[in-house]
Amino acid sequence: MENLVEKVARDLVDSKYAIALTGAGISTESGIPDFRGPSGVWTKNPEAERRAYRSYERFLEDPVGWWKERLSSPNLLGDVEKVMPNAGHYALAELERLGILKSVITQNVDGLHEKAGTKKLLEYHGSILKLRCVTCTSRFRKDEFEVEKLMQEDRLPPLCPRCGGIVKTDGVAFGEPIPGDVAQHSLEEASRCDLMLICGTSAVVYPFANLPRAAKYRKTESGRTPVDRNLETKIIEVNAEPTPLTEEGISDYLIRGKTGEILPEIVAEVKKLREKH
């Protein structure tokens, strides 16, 4: 383990454009339940999963009814907005402050990277802290709309002050396209990076799981790959278990364990290396 921590620290220090991808594994360490694990939200409540699969269709059919249901139903994950980042989130924010990480792309909608101080953040599946216009993709803080008051006054759904489009929560529902601005920017970051640090994701949810593959060979939208194999991006996993990326040889190596324990060790090692130069 110690040698691998030193190795990833060295690779990070030597990189020119490193980015990180994160998934549910980094959030469960803050106490946020997952969905499909042994004690997952949907494992315990299959009906909630069925409703989730219909959510976006329901929004398109009846945005007023969708908002009313949203405001009157408890959050299956509990009061996520009160959950705090853990050491893994803060470690990634520190790597950004050190000038090593150029961006973080996350599957998580919990807003914990933002709370931890990460600035260059792409929330691939949206954020519970925001609302989004489905027409122009403008995003707003939740407190910019008094949705409870709009419901009382029978003025749902909220409308975008910029284009007049319907506003929904920012989280991307099943069947809902990844917002074009985030999808494009994420692919650009993956194609540009020379090191990708993958933290706490099983890499099985698509299209997010395509990003490591795009990064590995710096694929562009046209599918072109560089002739020079030395241009391949280094892919490093910090995960509790091997993933398809490990098994398919997409990742160069895996450090097994908790992100909240390993990432701070990597940061400490990076600082040691920096002090030597």
Notes on the structure:
- It contains 12 helices and 9 strands.
- The protein has helices spanning 2-14, 24-28, 41-44, 46-61, 63-72, 87-97, 112-116, 147-152, 180-192, 210-216, 244-247, 259-276; strands spanning 18-22, 101-106, 121-123, 130-133, 139-141, 167-169, 195-199, 234-239, 253-256.
- A 6-stranded parallel beta sheet has the order 3-2-1-7-8-9, sandwiched between helices. A 3-stranded antiparallel beta sheet has the order 5-4-6, with no helix packed on it.
- The two termini are 24 Å apart.
- Mean pLDDT is 89; it is low at 220-229.
Q: In a few lines, what is going on in this structure?
A:
The chain has helices at 2-14, 24-28, 41-44, 46-61, 63-72, 87-97, 112-116, 147-152, 180-192, 210-216, 244-247, 259-276, and strands at 18-22, 101-106, 121-123, 130-133, 139-141, 167-169, 195-199, 234-239, 253-256.
